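Deliverable D5.2: sample structural annotation.
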Amino acid sequence: MAVTQQLARISAEYLASCRQSADASPDGDPVWDPPSADVLDLDWAPFLLERVCELGGLDDVHRHALRQALDGDTAIDLAFLNTHPHGIGPFGPDPTALSTAQVAHASELLGQIDFPDLLAALPADETEAASLIGNGADKIVGGPKKYLLGHFNAMREFYRGASQRQLLVVLWWD
């Protein structure tokens, strides 16, 4: 099983319910099961997305927004989601989250990023582009550009939906 980055958009009430379940359960089970329509698997794209933004010369404000959208924030205590044997992120760093305000901000800035323009800054040849991106981009079937554009667009739409519905975003590696 490959370890990939997962995102879930949830309400503050759902998170509170999970916290209560973990507190009440003898083994700390938070009963974490967000609806599949509100979960996004970014695969291994996060590292590659950041690299394309760096290579394409994306400004610091938008790169920071992308990084926050991919890394989350530790301000919301999610330790209860990482308790054995029910931990949601057993293969990576502890789960993180973005508040509704942070989600709205990230969504706005992600919406301003012209990702096709960033990809256009790479060499036209997929092999050369993959070599420049690094981080295993040369192993992506069909080339990295289509793969990364699809993942960036999915992430942008995911955050847009979370912002419109005023939801939190929880991030973890699984």
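Annotation notes: The longest strand covers residues 5-10. Helices lie at 12-24, 45-55, 60-71, 100-112, 115-120, 126-133, 144-164.
The annotation will be released with the project's public dataset once the embargo ends.
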